[in-house]
Amino acid sequence: MKLKTVELKPFEDEPFRFIDGDGHPVGKIDLDLKDEQLVALYRLMLVTRRVDERAELLRRQNKVMFYASCAGQEACHVGSAYATGPNDWLYPSHREQGVFITRGQPLTEIFAHFMSKATDPAMGRQMSGHLGSTKLNLVFLSSPVSTQISQAFGTAYAQKYRKEKAATLCYFGEGGTSENDFLAGLNFAAVFHTPNVFFCTNNQFAISVPREFQSKTSTYSIKAKAYGFDGYRVDGNDVLAVYYSVKTAMDRARNGGGPTLIEAVTYRYAPHSSADDTSAYRPPGELEEWKEKRDPIKRMRLFLIGEAGLLSEKSDKELLDEVYRSVELAEQEADRVPFPPLGTFLDDVYAEPQPWILQEEKQEIENLYEADYEKEMKERLGGP
Amino acid sequence: MMGQILALPTRQGKEPKDRKIAFKECITEALYLEMKNDDRVIVFGEDVGIKGGVFLVTAGLQKEFGVERCFDTPLNESGILGAAFGMAVAGLRPVAEIQFADFIWPGMDQIRSEISMLRYRSGGNMSCPLVMRMPWGGGVYGGLYHSQSPEAIFAHTPGLKVVVPSTPYDAKGLLISSIRDPDPVIFYEPKRLYFMKVPYEAVPEGDYTVPIGDAKIVREGKDATLFAYGTQVHHCIEVANAFEKEGVSLEIVELRTVWPFDKDAVLNSAKKTGRVVCITEAPAICSIASEISALIAERAIEFMQAPIQRVTGYYTPYPYWADRYYWPTPKRITAAVRDALAY
């Protein structure tokens, strides 16, 4: 059967996809990816899910105090981040673990962040998931929703001002499109024609509020029309479709074509966080439907083993074992790292030298609590 | 318009020591010099480009440096401040204007949750050096929304610096320092002083800095200390002049940097005179005047000869018709000084 080329078109209701839930192409896939890159995308999703599973376990062991799982959304993270280059900037939102992994943040650093160790780039000052990296142009994120959207405009403005062939990729959820900075960021990006790509992860829920109560528009991608640029709706569980749409948008931005909005339709398997219970709001059967019929990893596995012929059952199992080992090693390494010294929690409010009050308080906290803190940290590290 | 262009150094033919220049024009000069010397400096906000600002403080800059470096934004304070954050993270030195200090509130999340916290939350790995300049304070019949002094809220936000000059010389030097500072700075421009014709003072043509964190002893004295900043410094000078005729010598300590304020200058003067009056235009509760009072009470109580006085704006939104009765007047400051002296 001859397959038609699938085309990415703006403002369609039906999400753009290359592969359906069973791993079969829906049309002719026009992608500039080598075989090893296709497998790499799959592997990165495996790593993301495994890291997520381990983090959930660490949360139950109280080695991580708080955790927001990203299970189910791996294709959104991996497909999008894979389309970025070293000079691009990224503004991740929370629940974006796969973005950090795909960008190349060492797993030991990610686990150190979850466990608040001294090698955490955030120095233990933030809840888990609030990561960043100067080397990888990943802006350290905050908890307020959508503040990053107008910031992403600012960074893209800097890129345009310096005539860089680069773009800024900004993430937020469908709930985030209701916040004030969604308007600000998209409007400014449109007016100044900056190299922005706005990636809306529509995982159907903002904590408990379903998408029908978040907005009355038929899609989220349509919202770009109000600001004067194109929006695309893609299947967020098809890693190839996510990659293709983000690559198209990033290239457009880098070449002076201005901003784009992408809505990636996906589903959040877990509760909002370790502090949430979905039984009050998740419709029965919905989760199972998504897991069975539309899981991003399962879909890619079926595609790679079946249609693409790049993996066998055996090599797939070997790949999974390798991923498990890598993740385990990183976790163990981070586990051995000590916690940040207590006094460091009074650092970095300002550039050095800090104002007099902080100098006084640092002295005070060390005098008062040093022994208590050392005792507690020793207990937490455990073992000889 | 011509007045502002004339203020630019390229048009000045006078010797530095003869240059007397108005407060507002000093700010224009500071922006001009920093933009000229550092192409990372970008000036933007509502109406700052084509028009040159509603007070014409940025007049001439777009023409001189181009629309990429001095531009008008859509009407959105959160967008302006978020943009500043994003530019600074990527290595530029943004100078964002908020049209009035009173309009900062839509952008408060960007200031409090983002700009003030980035360095800390990133373990010191990222920072956002930027300046947020805005017209500030009362005395212009501006009413509720064109007269506010919200500095206490920002002093209460770890990670920010808050600066309020009161003279042309300090305005230029402090703005240059603010632009060069590695931390985010809120730079308040007392709008009452924009219009003041006096005092002019000699302002060097080139760039120079006034250190952030240094108070200024405007006048030395021994009988009592007046702590103030912004427009109120000029009320203090008026009051001190009047008391001089009675043989009373008042010391005036101008904070200049509201946060981090000069703790040593404050305590040294408090201990020296033993009678203090803390002045602010903002309402009394949780004001900067309260903070100075608390610090003196905490660390210099044994030196106090009288209760610590506060003279502040009344605890209301800023009224339009009662403008000249609302803020600390020389009359009210005088009464507070007399109370302190008589104790």
Describe this structure in words.
The complex is a heterodimer of chains A (384) and B (343). Chain A is built from twelve helices and seven strands. Chain A is of the alpha/beta class. In chain A, the strands form two sheets. Chain A has a five-stranded parallel sheet with strand order 1-2-3-7-6, sandwiched between helices. A two-stranded antiparallel sheet of chain A has the order 4-5. The longest helix of chain A has 26 residues. Chain A is globular. By secondary structure, chain B is α/β, with parallel strands linked by helices. In chain B, the strands form three sheets. A seven-stranded mixed sheet of chain B has the order 3-2-4-5-7-6-12, sandwiched between helices. A five-stranded mixed sheet of chain B has the order 9-11-10-13-14, sandwiched between helices. Chain B has a two-stranded antiparallel sheet with strand order 1-8. In chain B, helix 4 runs parallel beside helix 5, helix 10 packs across helix 14 and helix 11 packs across helix 12. Chain B is globular and about 60 Å long. Classes of the chains: A alpha/beta (384), B alpha/beta (343). The interface between A and B is large, with 46 and 45 residues.
CA-based gyration radius of chain A:
22 Å
Shape of chain A: globular
What's the tally of helices of chain A?
12
Structure classification of chain A: alpha/beta
Largest sheet of chain A: 5 strands, parallel
* Weakly predicted, low-confidence segments of chain B: 1-16
- The fraction of residues assigned to DSSP E strands of chain A is 5-15%
Q: Provide the succession of SSEs of chain A.
A: HHEHHHEHEEEHEHEHHHH
Our measurement of the CA-to-CA distance between the termini of chain A, rounded to an integer number of angstroms, reads 65 Å
**Greatest interface:** A-B, 46 and 45 residues
Order of strands, widest sheet of chain B: 3-2-4-5-7-6-12
The class by helix and strand makeup of chain B works out as: alpha/beta
Q: Indicate the low-confidence ranges of chain A by residue numbers.
A: none
Biggest pleated-sheet summary of chain B: 7 strands, mixed
What's the average pLDDT of chain B? 94
H/E topology pattern of chain B: HEHEHEHEHHEHEHEHEEEHEEHEHEHH
- Report helical residue fraction of chain B: 25-40%
